[in-house]
Specification:
By secondary structure, this protein is of the alpha+beta class. Helix content is 21%, strand content 30%. Strands 1, 2, 3, 4, 5, 6, 7, 8, 9, 10 and 11 form an eleven-stranded mixed β-sheet that branches.
Length: 275
């Protein structure tokens, strides 16, 4: 090796940022964030990237998902060298298909400016929660839906959900231990309900977009709206829950398997598709 050349684990000057759009089946993971002794999405992605790039990497995600939560479009940013930014998209796809486990898939690679963060540069995040009702449990979609069994009044749920839109203190929908000493105000931009079908099975899809979300916030919102849809609470109760700023005022937390991280919005021009 020539004098002054970087060794295997001596990074060169970073020239930009690689941004990876990932999808994953969350059933086999203890969440996104790395945890000692547990299988996590970040741990598997880090291992694959370090093998491919042959150096340690600094990984940042757009939003940490809990154990069992899925993703269609999780964005991850990695500070990169000039030669890494020159890697073609086709080569990225082949390498990650070989290095990532079967329950994680690379969807697209982008380039961004130096200092870009998948987390802090995100303007909005979108999640969808899917619920199946009826006497028969879902079969082919059982890993990505919550089987509630009892019928739900979607119109009542829509009415209740309307109180969520705007900037509020969502402390009532946050895991209590994670709210201590931290800001709990968030801005919900849009909510919607749709009846969808997949593989011959129907479900109710609740989609929510916000600037950011608290720990378990979406799942607790869903559990609260299901209380309304099942007729146990009136739609106006959702406003009472928001005002209470107390987790005990809200409904139960819906199961993780029905939740999917769907998209992240960034400023126009922030990301450039890798050629």
């Amino acid at each position: 090796m020539r004098v002054g050349a970087p060794s295997y684990f001596e990074p060169e000057v970073l020239d930009g940022t690689l941004v990876l759009r990932l999808g994953y089946d969350g059933a086999g993971f203890s969440g996104f964030a790395e945890q000692p002794g547990l299988r996590t999405v970040a741990g598997e992605v880090r291992c694959a990237l370090e093998t491919f790039l042959r150096r340690p990497i600094d990984l940042t995600c757009a939003g940490r998902t809990d154990a069992g939560v899925h993703a269609i479009a999780q964005y991850v940013s990695v500070p990169a060298h000039h030669d890494e930014l020159a890697i073609e998209h086709r080569r990225w796809m082949r390498a990650m298909a070989a290095l990532l486990p079967d329950d994680i898939a690379l969807g697209r690679v982008f380039h961004a400016s130096s200092g870009f963060s998948a987390r802090f540069d995100a303007r909005a995040r979108t999640y969808t929660y899917r619920i199946a009702t009826g006497d028969a449990p879902p079969l082919l979609t059982r890993k990505v839906t919550w089987w509630h069994r009892l019928p739900l009044d979607v119109e009542a749920m829509e009415c209740g959900a309307s109180y969520l839109v705007g900037e509020h203190d969502f402390k009532s929908f946050c895991k209590m231990s994670s709210a201590i000493g931290k800001p709990t105000c968030r801005n919900v931009i849009e909510v919607s309900f749709e009846r969808e079908g997949a593989l011959g099975e129907e479900h109710i899809a609740f989609t929510i977009t916000g600037n950011a979300f608290l720990h378990s916030m979406v799942r607790t919102i869903v559990g609260t709206l299901v209380e309304v849809g099942a007729g146990r609470r009136d739609p106006e109760w959702v406003l009472e829950v928001i005002t209470a700023c107390d987790r005990r005022a809200a409904g139960p937390t819906a199961p993780a398997r029905g939740l999917c991280f769907m998209d992240v919005a960034y400023d126009d021009g922030a990301l450039t598709a890798c050629p």
